[in-house]
Design goal:
With 286 residues, the protein is of the alpha/beta class. The protein has 2 domains: 186 residues, Rossmann fold (3-Layer(aba) Sandwich), CATH 3.40.50.720; 91 residues, 6-phosphogluconate dehydrogenase C-terminal like domain (6-phosphogluconate dehydrogenase C-terminal fold, Orthogonal Bundle), CATH 1.10.3660.10. The chain has 11 helices and 7 strands. The longest helix is centred in the C-terminal third of the chain and has 24 residues. It starts with 16 loop residues before the first strand and ends with a helix.
């Protein structure tokens, strides 16, 4: 399809204009959820033109301008569904392209560096409000083809505002997030988010990948049941993304790994000493 044809709209813009930058699993699911649960005008942008073509032909988005400047210039709310490093670079490159008074938020899995960067943009001349965010949802699958308007149902969303953010922006984002299926919206400091996410997400991904890498032999496959599949579901991860996430959060990840290592070594000692009481206490989570 000619990219100029992608500018075709299903009708006049209704409600708020929401832009989704990056139509992968998260961005695609956001677009589909906004489509299902609101009457907002949705503008999509992705570097893969076939993805934009699919999103438009499926009715997920109303418009897919060929130029990113056009997308940003007409959008009231912008979701940046990019890698952490790409998020900062994108804002730097397109800072002057955002609509006056718009709200710009992101879905990156780490927040400290991004929010620190956002805080420097406070009280800019155009009144653009940059708000950190992270949908606590994911999958071992990826891409627009695996996105769904039900992907976020029951999930949590974290906003990581800084002192310069407008209360009205947080309220508007919270209302939209709740409307598209999230069960809760929590505001917390970016540093606290990164410390917690090292435990709830980064450590499980590391363990899952190491479990898959350390299978003793091929015969073990006949003994794989639900517990192993559950524990390794996220092991087949996006290596480029997860290498960036782990390296960017290295302090918190190392801290939780050291704590986990201490517990593993204690289990080893209990087994070697045949100490039932110690072992029982170590593997109990009560």
């Amino acid at each position: 399809m000619n990219m100029n044809a992608l500018k075709a709209q299903r009708g006049k813009p209704i409600g708020v204009s929401v832009a989704i930058i990056g139509l992968g699993l998260i961005g695609g699911s956001l677009a589909k959820a906004v489509r299902t649960h609101t009457n907002h005008h949705i503008i999509g942008f992705d570097l893969q033109k076939d993805v934009m073509t699919s999103a438009l032909s499926e009715g997920v988005i109303d418009e897919a301008p060929e130029r990113i400047e056009e997308t940003l210039g007409k959008s009231d709310i912008v979701f940046l569904c990019l890698y952490p490093f790409e998020t900062v670079e994108f804002v730097k490159q397109h800072y002057n392209d955002f609509k006056e008074g718009s709200i710009v938020t992101d879905t990156a899995g780490l927040k400290s560096e991004i929010v620190q960067f956002y805080s420097k943009l406070t009280h800019n001349a155009k009144g653009i409000d940059f708000v950190g965010g992270h949908p606590i949802a994911g999958s071992e699958k990826s891409g627009f083809s695996n996105s769904s308007d039900q992907f976020f149902v029951g999930a949590s969303y974290v906003l990581t505002p800084h002192r310069g953010n407008r209360a009205s922006s947080i309220e508007q984002l919270t209302a939209l997030i709740q409307k598209i299926g999230f069960s809760s919206v929590t505001c917390m400091e970016a540093g606290v988010h990164d410390e917690m996410i090292a435990y709830t997400s980064h450590l499980p991904h590391i363990i899952a990948s190491l479990l898959l890498k350390n299978k003793p032999n091929a015969e073990v496959n006949s003994l794989v049941g639900g517990s192993f599949r559950d524990a390794t579901r996220v092991g087949n991860m996006n290596l480029a993304l997860w290498t960036e996430l782990l390296m960017c959060n290295q302090f918190n990840v190392i801290k939780i790994l050291e704590s986990f290592e201490t517990e593993i070594k204690a289990v080893q000692v209990a087994l070697k000493n045949q100490n039932v009481d110690d072992l029982s206490g170590l593997i109990s989570f009560k």
